[in-house]
Amino acid sequence: MDGPSTAPLPLTRASVQQAHRAIATLVHRTPLLSSTSLSHDAGYTLLFKAENCNKSGSFKIRGATYSVACLTDHERRRGVVTQSSGNHAAALALVARDLDIPAHIVSPRTAPAAKLAAVRAYGGNLTLCDPSIESREAALADVQRRTGACYVPPSDAVNTMLGQGTVFLEVEEQAREGGWGKLGAIIAPVGGAGLLGGIAVAARGTGVRVFGAEPAGADDCVRGLAEGRRITDFKPETIADGLLTPVGEHNWPVVQQDVEKVMTVTDEEILDAQRLLWQRLKTVVEPSGAVAFALARSAKFRELRVEGPVCVVLSGGNVDLDVPPPWVKA
Amino acid sequence: MDGPSTAPLPLTRASVQQAHRAIATLVHRTPLLSSTSLSHDAGYTLLFKAENCNKSGSFKIRGATYSVACLTDHERRRGVVTQSSGNHAAALALVARDLDIPAHIVSPRTAPAAKLAAVRAYGGNLTLCDPSIESREAALADVQRRTGACYVPPSDAVNTMLGQGTVFLEVEEQAREGGWGKLGAIIAPVGGAGLLGGIAVAARGTGVRVFGAEPAGADDCVRGLAEGRRITDFKPETIADGLLTPVGEHNWPVVQQDVEKVMTVTDEEILDAQRLLWQRLKTVVEPSGAVAFALARSAKFRELRVEGPVCVVLSGGNVDLDVPPPWVKA
Predict the structure, then answer these.
(1) B36, B53, B324: residue with CB nearest A282
(2) How large is the C-alpha radius of gyration of chain B?
């Protein structure tokens, strides 16, 4: 598929810093929240990076903004295209709208209605396809052929990783400004691992421990690390609809090299964490956005004996608010 | 009833500043949020003071903390007592717990279950009574007689107003720090008017226009201002369960003198505003917490032609998350 023609930056902390300079005025510097009661319950200081409050409702705006910023003017004018069932689709549609260029989005018919509605609200041209990988790729190729639009992948690309990694630089600054001092660790959820990979690159040399949290029903990363190979043939089954994809090819070596450990949480733990975040932190996160916190509350995470504050990334907050929250029994 | 023995400060901006110094390390400096899309829809820059994220889930922690700070050691040791159906009760119970003194709370049986649960979780001694004013006052007098605890009123007291007014000082600072510049106006919801009154006192001499927003089903303040008298004999009927009380006696002259205008919003407008805050700002507010925003979005507010950013106070976020949100049809 046609990627951007400009050479991607190398994967270093400095290249994440360069990405941050490029996008800092275009995305929100989301709040770093704290909670006395949740910290007390966990047994250490918890900080929450509220990427659910970023533009388009997730951290995906960072990678999408940076990827599009790296296109040439000529490429940009042809528009952008992606395949995504959710937050990346909405983020790319919003970036394109603000630049007044077309965004073509290929999504499976089974994608959450609230996320498809956001794509339409941002003016994205939506093409619905069957939920199989073949159907998705065929639809994507067809749109590219017709429009000449440039492909902006959801997570599996160097520029995407660099954009997502800017989360870490902000957390570092905000922890210092807030008087929290040096972080002990940061936990990010794992789907394609663009966010986790970017954070791991940005954290190199800082001494901050980097952990991934994965739904037990989509544990390709945990199993892949154990087996020493990237796993792509699995059927995910989890409430965390943003974390269904396998770890991307570009992101895999970073996860292997720079992430201390990836651990799983069950759907029940995810739901408990999501409810607690709504109730105590008063912040609306989607199931995927609660996965890192679910791990932070677990006994197995406590055994790692992190020293210093633990930051969990609340990655997204796009839920269908016209139905009861998932923990409410019908 | 037995009030605090220390003489309350005068009602000036300086006395709010003094209250702020007394409580700043004891309550959260809640985030000042912004939203490009909500500002765009409103037609002016909107800022949101997220008091729903304060300790105990509402701004009430400010007045409760300051009121208790103004007690003598001797008074404090005897414990505190209040009557409240909601957020003030939880706030006072939390303040008392942190000081390791008893808190006695008189609440009507009909109070929201989630709010009563919070009082219990903070270790408050709960006395349930019938929902009539007589029953409440009898229960309160009885508890005072038995315990000698000091009465800390929910809104109708000078120290309460001074504590709540600290919201304004923070908003001023945060708007400056965030590069938003000088505020054009601030809107607060009106129940007993401790919050609105405190803000109006703090805003004196600043040139910031102060507005109140009241549920149409509990419009004693709007009608009272029109008739030139405080109205106390009315039957409130609104979804905004935190705004049912009449404007307090101490707060009334401040509202008359220092508030530019108080306007009503319907329950339907409140629900729309509440849903939008959850969806776009990803922040959980209760109906009362959405009332100021409901007014900010209205055509009648736009007619006031405010110049500069408009801050709305999201006053509380305590909702029962185990039932569907109120806008979801069963």
Answers:
(1) B53
(2) 18
**Which ipTM did the prediction report?**
0.92
Q: Which CATH number fits domain A61-151: 3.40.140.10, 3.40.50.1100, 3.40.50.720, 3.40.1080.10?
A: 3.40.50.1100
Query: How many residues make up chain A in this entry?
Result: 330
Q: Which residues of A touch B328 (CB under 8 A)?
A: 321-324
Structural contact between residues B85 and B107, judged by C-beta atoms closer than 8 angstroms: yes
Q: Give the three-class secondary structure for B35.
A: coil
Residues facing residue B105 across a β-bridge: B82, B126
- The amino acid sitting at B78 is R
In angstroms, the CA A209 to CA A203 distance is: 8
Q: Give the per-residue pLDDT at A6.
A: 52
For chain B, where do the domains classified as CATH 3.40.50.1100 start and end?
A: 13-59+157-314, 61-151
What's the CA gap between A95 and A124, in Å, rounded? 10
CA angle B186, B187, B190 (to 5 degrees): 140
User: What percent of chain B lies above the pLDDT cut of 90?
Assistant: 89
Give the one of A279, A284, A323 whose C-beta lies nearest to B282's C-beta. A284
CATH number 1.20.1560.10 given to B13-59+157-314: no
Q: Which residues 283-312 of B are in CB contact (within 8 Å) with A?
A: 283-285
A135 is annotated as an active-site residue: no
Instruction: Say how far apart CA B290 and CA B40 lie, in whole Å.
Output: 18
Q: Indicate if B85 belongs to the active site.
A: yes
Which residues, other chains included, contact B296 with Cβ-Cβ below 8 Å and sequence gap of 6+? B42, B46, B187, B213, B310, B312
pLDDT band at B7 (very low <50, low <70, confident <90, very high): low
Chain A contacts in chain B segment 14-43 (CB below 8 A): 31, 33, 36
Nearest Cα to A5, choosing from A89, A68, A71? A71
Cα A291 from Cα A295, distance rounded (Å):
6
